[in-house]
Amino acid sequence: TFDRSKLTKLVSLGAIGVLLAFSDSVTGISAAILGLAVWVWVQLYRNLDLRNSSIFLLSSLMVLAFALLGAATSLTAITDASGKDLTFTGRTFIWRASFNAWMERPALGYGLGGILGRDPITPRTAEVWRAIGFRVPHSHNGVLDVGIQLGLVGVVLFLLLWGTTLLSALRLLRDRPKMTTWIVSVMFVQLYMSL
Is this structure's pTM higher than 0.70? Predict the structure, then answer.
């Protein structure tokens, strides 16, 4: 986004392409596709006037809703194609046990490092690991991890910070389009990979 040299930009993009082509990470590849899609979307959105941008935003939200609905109804096919199972390699067990632990302290959670991956191991961490069936250092879900550590208060603060950062980036759209594109793309990729 910010590289002014065409040569280094092409070398960087080539290296990224090679790394993605030989990557085994479905999450990494799909995150790269999402980042590219968000980048293209922001480029298209920024070139529209107020009336057309509203229509474009509404139609984009509808397409996103249908895509999410399609993905949810085709989850078995998607996981099979990516070489995963419906537990996302055991992550659903981790999410369920972590969520159940969080619901015991929903407002404030267990505090930073208060559960999972803590040394020395607390009795509550041992219970969660037994429920999962193996040891994990964290809940493998960013929002859930914030919730289990900082409770609903932490999740609300996280969402406020994320939302206000997104709105601030979008306010820069006309004046600093490269900055907006980079911030919005990175934010959505990080949120996706976190979930």
Answer: yes
